Amino acid sequence: MNRASGIRLGKILGIPIYLHPSWFIIFALITFSLGTQFTAQHPSWSPAQHWVVGIATAILFFGSVVFHELSHSAVALRYRLPVASITLFVFGGIARISAEPSSAKQEFNIAIAGPVSSFFLAGVFFLISRVVPGNEIVLATTTWLWQINFALAAFNLLPGFPLDGGRIFRSIVWGITKDFRRATRYASGSGQLLAYLMIFGGIWQFVSGNRFGGLWLAFIGWFLLNAAQESYAQVEVQSVLAGVTAGDIMYKDVPTVGRDISLSDYVHEVLRTGRRCHIVTGAGTPVGLVTLHAARAVPRDEWDTTSVQAAMIPIDKIQWAAPTDPVLKILERMQREDVNQMPVLDQGNIVGIIGRDSILGALQTRISASNLSGQSAGH
Question: How far apart are CA 18 and CA 11, in angstroms?
Fold first, then answer.
């Protein structure tokens, strides 16, 4: 869920709203569950009423999830943190905020906004259920909605990262220790502990006979476990690469190939040098960029008759970086634009090439150096 994907529904507060394909699974499950529940609780209703009310209630629930995520987003926007998108998927919803908060206070306020909004909706639906007790359809819908919003808020307050409660926990530790990295490590640890408890609890329920509920609980635990581990790894990467620029780690020897050579000859050049990205030149002037990935896009039996120029990215469509660009920003651009390498341009001249492999190499070197430094300090 790092990148927005799925069906775009529109924008709210300038934020794109997406439906991930997995959302249809949970929507169908909730609708089926509600239809079955309303059939048992209200036998006097017609079959059409059972399912129409079930569908309408499910839609209102996911509207509640969007409201929850919009609350996070509204506070983030107030702090001028960009919100790339909100996506509804099988586990509910996620607001993709493109930058980390700059203080523990910001983190706390952004995190707490979601549960507060869900408690607010629970209160609104509870009041409606009390105002119109004589209308069975409204009563059934609002009763389920206030209960599920209350449960959603309570679940999100569990101190397991990346749940809202885990982020609140991180903000408290951050505020006390003044160390964001350490706070993330503690919050991630609590998230992994919670995830393991859910996984083992789900297995126990499955063995005890509650097969569907047990599987679902274990599945949520597995998802939280991966999310907690990935969130901490992301913070580690940001910490290790902070302050590193393209000029620090770029390959300064810029490999070139002529635009008239065949793709077959180009692949041989890649095999000889191990370099997977080359500047294409014509009459000594850069005209494009070719990669091994571009060669693979052409059928193998056409390599001998296809020139590099036919497969290259033209010079005016290349993603460039500057020597002073932070590596973290470049990595974000690579992920967003789905590219693996970028030429580095300084005053109109190509001075190097930076790729995901060079960023990964720099990351591994700095982690190893950091570990070695820590061991030396320990002695």
Answer: 9
Q: What percent of the chain has pLDDT over 90?
A: 26
CA atoms within 13 A on the CB side of 302: 10
Query: What per-residue confidence (pLDDT) applies to 2?
Result: 46
Distance CA 30, CA 53 (A): 12
- CB distance 256 to 281 below 8 Å: yes
What is the pTM for the complete model shown? 0.70
Average pLDDT score, the chain: 85
User: Looking at the predicted structure, is the pLDDT value of residue 347 above 80?
Assistant: no
The values of phi and psi at residue 98, to 5°, are -80, -5
pLDDT at 330 over 70: yes
**Domains in the chain, CATH or no CATH each:** 7-241 (no CATH), 246-364 (3.10.580.10)
Rounded Cα gap, residues 237 and 335, in angstroms: 15
